[in-house]
Every structure is written in structure tokens, then in C-alpha cells.
Amino acid sequence: MALVNTKEMFKKAYDGGYAIGAFNVNNMEIVQGITEACKEENAPVILQVSKGARAYANHTYLVKLVEAAVIECPEIPVALHLDHGPDFETCKACIDGGFTSVMIDGSAHAFKDNIELTRKVVEYAHDRGVVVEGELGTLSGIEDEVSHEVGSYTRPEEVEEFVQKTGVDSLAIAIGTSHGAYKFKPEQCTRNEKGILVPPALRFDILEEVSKRLPGFPIVLHGSSSVPQEWVKVVNEHGGKMPDAIGVPEEQLRKAAQLSVCKINIDSDLRLAMTGTIRQFFDENPSKFDPREYLKPARANIKALVSHKLRDVLGCAGKA
Ligand SMILES: [Zn+2]
Q1: What Cα–Cα distance (Å) separates residue 205 from each residue in 109, 152, 259, 266, 313?
Q2: In the annotation, is 15 catalytic?
Q3: Smallest Cα–Cα separation from 265: which of 24, 6, 1, 57?
Q4: How many whole angstroms from its chain centre is CA 213?
Q5: Distance between Cα 221 and ligand 1 center (Å)
Q6: Strands 146-148 and 141-143
Q7: Distance, CA of 287 to CA of 210 (rounded, Å)
Q8: 309 partner at 20 to 30 Å CA-CA among 113, 139, 252, 257?
Q9: Residue 242 and residue 224: Cα distance in Å, rounded?
């Protein structure tokens, strides 16, 4: 199977009450860890590339790594998506350069300018069989070069006009998820009996209102890592310093996936699994210096984490 766009994936996900995982890729081990899990779980997948990933690994290397994964995993649908396209030129470069899906993030612009920019990308993309994700509302937190001190929730009264005037294929909304490994400030949370932060609930009322206004339309959640506390612990026990790192509870993402959310973005959790594994390895094996020896378990732990997400959070295992 060649690379696909997300049209059919999202239709099946919407009707089936599950979501597709959109995992960020930056190097070979991450691509392999994710796609080996998807192959084993028979799950469709979106591999996404941010502006920072293109700057780090180079566009061509990333496209070729993903194409290699498609050859190795012929049974599963794979989409290649641009995460947070900042402008028309970047989207165009990805559309021309082999991507099957792009996001144009005009959320920092005024509503009218966001519509105009998104519409321009949609026209270029649709002529070439590529789908487009837009965004309304902004997420707080830091993701590569996308950074907002404070977020603002999506205004449901704007979504119909935005989708109608732009022609976008999916819409990212802000309902309280956030980029990075520090999604909530301690003062926004309560603490459980173990002293671990418990974050505020996502705004399902906004999601429901948006879904009512856009029946059958795929919704996207960004910043949806759960920041597994077992990995935070591994990092901190082996020389790391990530106090009060916190994410979105998995049961809330499971609930969103059963509603109109068809794509859930997960990046920080993979970073944590990789970093925790490598920190622990160095701590326990100070004399080793072969990168294969620490990248191999890192890749295996990314795979295990993704398998868990597919089965227990996204619900897309067995849906390829
Ligand atoms: Zn994002």
C-alpha cells in the first residue's frame, strides 16, 4: 500500500468511535518503533513531521524514512502529515514533496485572516489529492517552535463558518489539552494521596457543542500526551530533572476518541520513553558507547508505548 491521505481513515474512525494516532517522527528509531507497533496491532497511523523535525532531520530524509516504513508495513494505511504548518510556503513544499496531509496553523491570526490563509492552502492541496487540517483556538505550552503562554478555548460559534469558508478536511480545537510535558501548572491541579498532580478535566462541553454544529466532521486534538508517571520517575531517578511533569489522563482521551475526535497527537510520551530508556542505560552501563546498544531498547520502549496507546487509548488496534 502506498502512502494514503486521511479521508477514509477519518470516516471509518468517526463511524467506529475510535481515533487515529498521530505520532511525531524525527529519526529512524522513532519511525521504526511506531510503525512496528502499528503493524503488529494492525492499526492505521499518521506519521507527522513538524517544522522543527524538518529543520533537524531534513525533509528528504524524513520522507524516505516514512516511505521505507510503508514498504516494510504494506498491510497498514500510513499517512504523512505536516504538523503545525506555519505558512503557505511550508505547506506547499510538503504537498509538492510527498506529504499526503498538511496542517496550516493560522490560529494565531485574526479569524478572517485564518480563513483566508487556510482557504489558500486548501485550494492548493485539494488539487493534488492532499487533505488539510485547520485550527481554531490556541493551545498553551511549547512544542518545537509553537509556543503560547496562555491558550484560548475554541469558540463553537465560529466553527461552521470556518469549515464552510475554508473547505478544510479536519479541525484542531482547543478544549484544554496543551503542548509539552508540563501541560498544567501545579496551581491548576489538585494532588492525590501519592502527591501526584491531578489535572483539570478537558472541556467536553465545547467538544460536544462543536460536534453538534459539525455533524460527521473529524475533530483533532493536539497536545495529547499523558506524560506517564512511570517514565517521569525513570528520568528523574537517572539524573533527569522533570519535577511536576504532567499530561492529559488517558481515560479522557479514550472518551474523546469515542466522540467526534478522529486524530489524537502524541509526541511528548515518545520523547519521555526514549529519554528515560537512554538515561537508565547510561546510568547502568557507564562504559558502553555503541549507539546501537542504547537506541535498540529506546526503540523497543517506543514500540511498547505506542502499542498501549493503540489498544487502550485510541481504540484503533485491528482497524487497518
Ligand atoms: Zn500541536
Answers
A1: 25, 15, 12, 23, 20
A2: no
A3: 24
A4: 24
A5: 8
A6: antiparallel
A7: 55
A8: 139
A9: 18
> DSSP code of 211?
H
Q: Given 15, 83, 144, 205, which residue is catalytic?
A: 83
Whole-number Å distance, alpha carbon 142 to ligand 1 midpoint, is 9
Q: Strand pairing of 78-85 and 219-221?
A: unpaired
153 alpha carbon to ligand 1 midpoint, in Å?
A: 14
Model confidence at 181: pLDDT above 80: yes
Condensed to tens digits (0 to 9), the pLDDT of residues 228-248 reads 999 999 999 999 999 989 999
- Per the listing, cell 489535572 goes with 199
Confidence of residue 269 (pLDDT cuts 50, 70, 90): very high
Element at 274 (helix H, strand E):
helix 268-284
C-alpha of 304 from chain center: 17
- Tell me the CA–centroid distance for residue 54 and ligand 1, in Å: 15
Residue 125 has pLDDT above 70, yes or no: yes
Domains of the chain in sequence order: 7-314 (3.20.20.70)
Quick check: pTM over 0.85? yes
Based on the number of CB atoms within 10 Å of its own CB, is 67 exposed (0-12), middle (13-18) or buried (19 or more)?
middle
Q: Cα(24) to centroid of ligand 1, in Å? A: 10
Q: Which conformational region is residue 136 in: left (phi greater than 0), alpha (psi within -120 to 50 degrees), or beta?
A: beta
Q: How many CB atoms lie within 10 A of CB 186?
A: 12
Report residue 144: phi and psi, to 5°. Answer: 50, -120
To which residue does cell 497527537 refer? 265
- All three cell numbers of 160, joined, read 461552521
Question: Contact, 44 vs 77, CB < 8 A?
Answer: yes
Q: Residue 83 Cα, ligand 1 centroid: separation in angstroms?
A: 7
